[in-house]
Specification:
The protein contains 14 helices and no strands. It is an all-alpha fold. The longest helix is centred in the middle third of the chain and has 30 residues, at 149-178. The protein is globular, with a radius of gyration of 21 Å.
Length: 330
């Protein structure tokens, strides 16, 4: 918003300014209201909606009668659908570290099946990678003090089961996605003709960076990123950092980078606690935020990033709660 004081904006500056103001106000109002109970309820509702979206994806394939992926009604909105399903799938899968409820495993399978058939590439890759990394991290950061053989056996079986879940999810998701002709062909472009596979994003990012280099310090003013990245008012750089850098310059860009990395700094502080004996209640929230963070690095308008910043609040609150619990216990 402050970039309006030092840069000339284009026609859309009022619309983008309003979106930034609303997002900031919403996040600020949420800060004092966030607690673990409300966070869990929010994510349960998200998983429920995502499960319904997955069922609609299944129904679409049944209606079409093939796995071609070309005649789908969800084609126009598949990025939104896949991001929702991917977010819920990551949260549900990583939640299995802290719970053994059968319903959670069933939900995870449904969500990852929906993600595999959602026609998305980015959400699919991010979902698989983030799930694998955070489930492994959850195993490694389990409490290290084992008092008897029963605890030792339980810890070993837990690690073995978690590793099996990771391999099963990754295998099934990749196998399912490759059954869809459209997804298989688009993935093939990445490995066979990388320029063609990334042509859209690479063109936007290269144009964005070229314009950033011309006005690196102050940017072009809020609302200018569409013109400066894709030559259209309705376009955007498909990268939250590039978009803010184009509009506001280097100071807002660095501030945004620092803010987005804050949950990982909080994680480092938590890991440094004695014996790393911190529970894993924070893990699904940080995993969900990481998935969304990666998605905003390759698509989506940053001025509508309410979900990204709210998930960051969730991750920070979960880490803070875990640290407080450990401090009180010690």
């Amino acid at each position: 918003l402050l970039s309006n004081l030092w840069s000339v904006s284009t026609e859309r500056y009022m619309e983008d300014s309003m979106q930034v103001a609303v997002t900031a106000a919403l996040v600020a109002a949420t800060v004092g209201q966030v607690n673990m109970k409300r966070m869990e309820l929010t994510m349960r509702l998200t998983c429920g909606v995502a499960a319904a979206a997955s069922v609609l994806v299944f129904q679409e394939y049944i209606t079409v009668g093939s796995l071609s992926g070309w005649d789908m009604r969800i084609t126009d909105s598949y990025l939104v659908v896949s991001r929702l399903i991917g977010l819920a799938a990551v949260f549900s899968a990583t939640s299995t570290i802290a719970t053994v409820k059968r319903k959670r495993y069933v939900l995870t399978i449904i969500l990852f099946a929906g993600l595999a058939l959602s026609l998305a590439r980015g959400a699919l890759v991010f979902g698989v990678v983030v799930t694998g990394v955070f489930m492994t991290l959850g195993v490694l950061l389990r409490p290290r003090r084992i008092e008897n053989m029963s605890d030792l056996a339980r810890n070993f079986l837990s690690k073995l089961a978690t590793t099996g879940i990771i391999l099963l999810l990754i295998s099934l998701v990749i196998w399912g996605a490759m059954r869809v002709e459209r997804t298989r062909r688009l993935f093939g472009l990445i490995f066979v003709d990388r320029d063609a596979g990334f042509s859209g994003r690479l063109g936007i990012w290269s144009t964005s960076w070229a314009n950033i280099s011309r006005r690196m310090m102050f940017g072009y003013g809020i609302g200018s990123s569409g013109i400066m990245s894709g030559g259209s008012e309705t376009s955007y750089p498909h990268n939250v950092i590039l978009q803010i850098w184009l509009d506001g310059g280097i100071i807002p860009a660095l501030a945004t980078i620092a803010m987005l990395l804050l949950p990982y700094y909080a994680l480092c502080l938590a890991i440094r606690l004695p014996d790393s004996r911190i529970d894993s209640s924070w893990l699904p929230y940080l995993a969900a935020y990481s998935f969304q963070f990666l998605d905003y690095m390759k698509s989506t308008n940053s001025y509508t990033a309410r979900d990204l910043f709210l998930l960051e609040l969730f991750a920070l609150n979960a880490l803070s709660s875990a640290r407080r619990c450990l401090t009180n216990r010690d």
